[in-house]
Amino acid sequence: MAEAQAKDAAAKERILQHMNKDHQDSLIRYLEHYCHVSSYYARNAQLEDITFASITITSGKGCRYIIPLDPPLASWSEMRSRVVAMDAKSINGLKRSDITVKKYKRPKRLWIVVPCLVAGTMIAFSKRSNFEPGSFLYDYLLKSLPDFAKFCHTIQPYLLPGVLMIHATEAAHMASSRLDKHSVPRFSTLWWKWVISAFFEGIGAFRRLDQIVAHEEDLKAKIKH
To answer: Do residues 87 and 203 make contact, with C-beta atoms less than 8 angstroms apart?
Structure first.
């Protein structure tokens, strides 16, 4: 009896550690699908307890949610197939991809220049006085180009809002079309890295994220075969 209880306890502990270490994205989806918790509040989810009849998950905000297992398990050996089935149902219900993006990829080569140019443009056009005599920008860079400085001075009130709107749209598109789809928790550190990259880079950030997804899809295909 004592030996059987010890084996059960060991099996339970292995499942808890494995799910929390390697499948936190699944736990987050469980909370979103079965408990209707938002992606923001579901982030940093941890599997707190499991029994043959239910699983207990704690959200990043410290709230506990109990999800019944119907039908209950007959043994711990059934747990793997059950959590896989639950995740598949969650992915389908949430209309997500089965690929979770778990990392950020920095820009390389010329793509590093793009965010620098965008940021520089925003700073330069943040106020009209930057194109007037006496400003650092005018005195050190534009003094020999008075016509260009005058042109920038004229378009400044119109250019900055347009640039901000375009780049904000790209960031929003990244969040809705890529990050939500690939189960990146909203407002997490990873989420912010990709959104900010999309804001300053545009297509470069989308390409890098799509490369990560394509790589993960290739790995899954190889495993299946």
So the answer is: no
Tokens of 102: 């778990």
pLDDT tens digits for 168-192?
Answer: 999 999 999 999 999 999 999 999 9
Distances (CA, A) of 60 to 35, 123, 174, 177: 14, 36, 24, 24
Q: Please provide the size of the chain in residues.
A: 225
- Which stretches within 44-188 are classed as H helix? 79-94, 113-124, 136-137, 146-174
The residues with which 58 forms a beta bridge, in sequence order, are 46, 64
* SS3 (DSSP) at 19: helix
Provide the β-strand partners of residue 44.
none
For residue 1, the model assigns a pLDDT of: 60
Question: What span, in angstroms and rounded, lies between the C-alpha atoms of 89 and 203?
Answer: 32
**107: CB partners within 8 A, 6+ apart:** 114, 115, 197, 201, 204, 205, 208
Give pLDDT tens digits for 92-120.
999 999 999 999 999 988 788 988 999 99
- Give me the residue label for tokens 């943040």: 126
The answer to whether the CB of 118 falls within 8 A of the CB of 200 is yes
